[in-house]
Amino acid sequence: MPEPTRPASSAGGAPHLRRVLTLWDLIFYGIVLIQPIAPVPLFGVAQKLSDGHFVTTIFIAMLAMMITAVSYGRMAALYPAAGSAYTYVGRGLNPHLGFLAGWAMILDYILQPVINTVWISTALHERYRDYHIPQIPFVMWAAVIVGIITFLNLRGVKTSAVANKVLLFFMFIVVALFIYLAVRYLFHMDGWPGVFSTQPFYDPRTFRWPTVMTATSFAALTYIGFDGVTTLSEEVVNPKRNVLLATVLTCVFAGVFSALEVYLGARVWPNWRTFPNLETAFMDVCRQVGGLLLFHGMGAILIVAAFGSALTGGMGAARLLFGMGRDNVLPRKIFGHVNPETSTPSYSILLIGAASFGGAIALNYIGNAYEHAGETLNFGAFLAFMGVNFATFWQFVVRRQGGRKPRILADAVLPLFGFLFCGLIWWNLNPIAKKVGAVWFVVGLVLLIVKTRAFRQKPVMIDFSEG
Residue 430 CB: number of other CB atoms within 10 A? Predict the structure, then answer.
């Protein structure tokens, strides 16, 4: 995929981005964002939450994401400047609502290093203790991981596009090897009936709709990142068509490919209650079908991917806080500080590091740390998804963009159904996620009231390009 282009000047001197990206470039970019191993670290926890129906929850979440992807694509056509849910809600509904959507999204940025710190610490603490790694407490692993990430971000170290593509290549190799070995294992054990079964989709002994819907709010993590495709709208050939198609097809790829991995995992190890550790359950499945080679290969890929995600997520969150400090939305002396030697927002990086360590320890103390971190991340994500769906309805039905008569199905029914569906998933988040998210949201609301003098002024725009 061509690298994102730099701004070029038109004949009149106004900067713009060259439109060079095709539909397939966008889809590849979406796959890079979501990653083909997205459901792997979720597997054990999601199987527990759904009582063995992770595959079903992936497809339910895919329906909500596909509808939301259509709304993202349509809003990107209206507002082609590189943006996000924050842009679409702010310009499509109301600037104050846009600020709150942006504030909710910042929580996702902050939680990225938290959730990855939790997973890496758990993997190293629980699963590798028998493989020449001493039994080191979770808190020590978390301190080491956060320390390394914070140090690298303070030094301004970034993961390169080439490194991400190499990692993506090895992810596909490991996943393809797993699929082959899993099918071979199942066929050897029970023939074709062992390979093909409806049990991962529907088991009448354990299937309960309330349980499945609660699990869907966690399974939706599989799709987090698909909306990043719309940030390249200014560089896309025929953006009105290609951005919408790319966001939908990225969700379809993520759903189908993830469902295949999870289906095979559920067939190889149908009873989730016997997993030694839920957070690293898929690695046990890999060992079952491919021995220690596949076990270590999958573990290495997961740890490297999680570390890279924590590194870029931590820097993205720090830069967002810096942008808000620079614009005096947050205290400028702290958040607007830049280290003159490394040109990094050092105070913000240190705060993100402290939040990552504190969040990981607190969640580990409560129990089910990975589950709580994931669902709290979805608190902000699904508020943003709801906002984009409702903004689409508002633009095409209430404001009547283009002056044409609204189409009932495309302009009203679909986005409103997406709004309600995402709202249902959001409502089924666990209580801890709702409480943490609610506190964060209230802080943002108070900040908005103070900075806009009780909504009498427009809020300062949050520059998400910083992240």
Answer: 19
- Residue 344 phi/psi, 5-degree rounding, is -115, 150
Domain formed by 22-466, architecture:
Up-down Bundle (1.20)
Quote the CA–CA distance of 243 and 82 in Å, as a whole number: 12
* Cβ atoms within 10 Å, residue 304: 15
Place of tokens 């849910």: 85
What distance in Å separates the CA atoms of residue 116 and residue 373, rounded to the nearest whole number?
9
CB 124 within 8 A of CB 283: no
337-377 tens-digit pLDDT: 888 887 888 888 999 999 999 988 988 888 777 888 888 88
Compute the distance between CA of residue 467 and CA of residue 313 in angstroms, rounded to an integer. Answer: 8
Chain-centre distance of CA 88, in angstroms?
A: 18
Under 8 Å CB-to-CB from 391, ≥6 apart: which residues? 71, 75, 88, 89, 92, 93
Report residues of the chain scoring pLDDT below 50: 1-15
Q: Report how far residue 32's alpha carbon sits from residue 427's, in angstroms, rounded to the nearest whole number.
A: 29
pLDDT value, residue 12: 45
- The Cβ of residue 337 has, within 10 Å, a number of other Cβ atoms equal to 18
Looking at residue 206, its amino acid is T
Distance CA 70, CA 414 (A): 9
Q: How many CB atoms lie within 10 A of CB 444?
A: 18
- Tokens 């758990």 belong to residue: 122
Q: Output the CA angle 99-101-103, nearest 5 degrees.
A: 70
Domain range summary for the chain, segments of one domain joined by +: 22-466
Residue 376 one-letter amino acid:
T
Rounded Cα distance, 37 and 406, in Å = 40
How big is the chain by its Cα radius of gyration, in Å?
22
The secondary element (H helix, E strand) that includes residue 89 is helix 85-92
Contact 77, 409 (CB under 8 A): no
Q: Which residues contact 85 (CB under 8 A, 6 or more apart)?
A: 72, 101, 102, 105, 227, 384, 385, 387, 388
Place of tokens 């969700």: 251
- Residue 198 contacts by C-beta under 8 Å, 6 or more apart in sequence? none
The predicted pLDDT at position 415 comes to 95
| Nearest-angstrom CA–CA distance, 36 and 165 | 12
Residue 226 DSSP SS3? helix
Rounded Cα–Cα distance for residues 368 and 277 (Å): 11
Q: Give yes or no for a contact between 172 and 337, defined as CB atoms under 8 angstroms apart.
A: no
